[in-house]
Automatic annotation (TrEMBL):
Transmembrane listed as a keyword: no
Recorded name of the encoding gene: metA
Catalysed reaction equations from the record: L-homoserine + succinyl-CoA = O-succinyl-L-homoserine + CoA
UniProt source species: Opacimonas viscosa
Site residues by UniProt (Important for substrate specificity): 192
EC number: 2.3.1.46
HAMAP family according to UniProt: MetA_acyltransf
Subcellular location: Cytoplasm
Keyword annotations: Acyltransferase, Amino-acid biosynthesis, Cytoplasm, Methionine biosynthesis, Transferase
Pathway this chain belongs to: Amino-acid biosynthesis; L-methionine biosynthesis via de novo pathway; O-succinyl-L-homoserine from L-homoserine: step 1/1
Name of the protein this chain belongs to: Homoserine O-succinyltransferase
Primary enzyme class: transferase
């Protein structure tokens, strides 16, 4: 089944060329089912690239999904045309009266900033709390995962002395959890961050289970036992060359930039990229949509259970 995205969104041409079924609003209206309602709060600088990456992972499901692209009010994009934001994104103030089956909050390049120093921290806190009332399950990625742990549980992340960048091996720690269904016992996924929360901190936080972790990168996938919150500390959505582009960008700023680990063949930037994470990234999103959203969300979203995890 397709994902329904705004008409003329640049991602549509890319996904169509990849033989991914997308449809516009008019055609979606002819479908006699209740589609899943999924919002994407995109905090990444290059929003068009991130849209394509996430929409690609959401597409591998038999469910019809309506997508809303959401932005924080009054935030001016630095790397995305304002016209794109005006045409395809809805300010949070305009959708806050709506309920969603699922919400994805992306990472953001804010690794060194204290949360309170983030210009839109107050708005993010409002969205976090709003989601606990109006969303069945929220998927927090990278920076958003750490920010949610701070907001809801008072957990302050550590700042690593060097950036965690590369493709790391993870072990499935909870093989019977539906989010891990179909995963190999060991799998790879990209990370790109300075922030870190020790695995033991997640494990001792009430109501949270560590589902997958790596010896080098620590906790990777954690979730609340009620399936309402999923914390993913890496970037399963990354394209093959995303870490390469980050490495080129960072190298231009510092000659001491480390080569992403396990990313290039023989860890040599002149050699090919080893792509080893796509299947598990797709499976993670498919399982989230099926078992954490579709299987448990009410038909009438106005009857969503109300939860609050704030400290």
């Amino acid at each position: 089944m397709p994902i329904r995205i705004p008409e003329n969104l640049p991602a549509q041409n890319v996904l169509t060329q990849e033989n991914i079924f997308v449809m516009d609003l008019a055609r979606a209206g002819e479908q006699d089912i209740r589609p899943m309602e999924v919002g994407i709060l995109n905090l990444m600088p290059n929003k068009i690239e991130t849209e394509i990456q996430i929409l690609r992972l959401l597409s591998n499901t038999p469910l019809q999904i309506n997508i809303d692209l959401i932005r924080i009010d009054d935030q001016v994009p630095k790397n995305t045309p304002q016209s794109h934001m005006d045409d395809f994104y809805q300010p949070f103030s305009q959708i806050k009266a709506k309920q969603y089956d699922g919400l994805i909050i992306t990472g953001a390049p804010l690794g060194f900033k204290a949360y309170e120093d983030v210009t839109y921290w107050t708005q993010i806190q409002e969205i976090f709390d709003w989601a606990q009332i109006n969303v069945q399950s929220t998927l927090y990625l990278c920076w958003a995962a750490h920010a949610a742990m701070y907001h809801f549980h008072g957990v302050v992340r550590d700042i690593r002395p060097t950036k965690l960048s590369g493709i790391f091996e993870h072990a499935v720690l909870a093989p019977t959890n539906e989010l891990m269904r179909g995963f190999d016992p060991y799998f790879f996924a990209p990370h790109s961050r300075f922030g870190n929360i020790p695995e033991a901190v997640y494990a001792k936080t009430p109501g949270i289970e560590v589902l997958a972790a790596g010896s080098e990168c620590g906790a990777y996938i954690c979730a609340t036992t009620d399936k309402r919150q999923v914390f993913v500390t890496g970037h399963p959505e990354y394209d093959a060359d995303t870490l390469l582009q980050e490495y080129i960008r960072d190298s231009a700023q510092s000659s001491e930039t480390a080569i992403p680990v396990n990313y290039f063949k023989a860890d040599d930037p002149s050699q090919e990229i080893l792509v080893r994470w796509r299947s598990h990234g797709t499976l993670l999103y498919t399982n989230w949509l099926n078992y954490y959203v579709y299987q448990v969300t009410p038909y009438d979203l106005t009857t969503l259970p109300k939860h609050s995890y704030s400290i």
